[in-house]
Amino acid sequence: MTEKNDITKRTASIRKWFTTPLVEKSDNLFKNSATDSVAIATDNQ
After folding, report:
1. How far apart are CA 14 and CA 18, in angstroms?
2. In this structure, are residues 29 and 37 in contact, taking their beta carbons and an 8 Å threshold?
3. Centroid of chain to Cα 19
4. Quick one: average pLDDT of 9-25?
5. Are 26 and 37 within 8 A, CB to CB?
6. What is the pTM of this model?
7. Given this model, what pLDDT does residue 44 score?
8. Do 41 and 23 meet the contact criterion of CB atoms below 8 Å apart?
9. In degrees, to the nearest 5, what angle opens at C-alpha 15 toward C-alphas 13 and 18?
10. Percent share of the chain, pLDDT over 70
11. What DSSP designation does 4 have?
12. Minimal CA–CA distance to 42: which of 29, 25, 24, 23?
């Protein structure tokens, strides 16, 4: 779907552009701890 739909492709690109720095920051914050930054990021409660 992404390859055929320019709007979806653009939206995915923008999402990745804004999300990547946040993931890298979280990884750096928790790199020396036992906390799993992926678990924090995926908790929607």
Report:
1. 6
2. yes
3. 4
4. 83
5. yes
6. 0.47
7. 54
8. yes
9. 110
10. 73
11. T
12. 23
Residue 10 near residue 17 (C-beta atoms within 8 A): no
Place of tokens 């924090």: 40
Reduced to 3 states (helix: H, G, I; strand: E, B; else coil), residue 2 is coil
Residue 19, classed as helix, strand or coil, is helix
Closest to 26 measured CA to CA, from 37, 40, 34: 37
Cβ-based neighbour number of residue 23 at 10 Å: 13
| CB-based contact 26:40 (threshold 8 Å) | yes
What is the token pair recorded at 45? 């409660």
Whether residue 9 contacts residue 1, with contact meaning beta carbons closer than 8 Å, is answered with: no
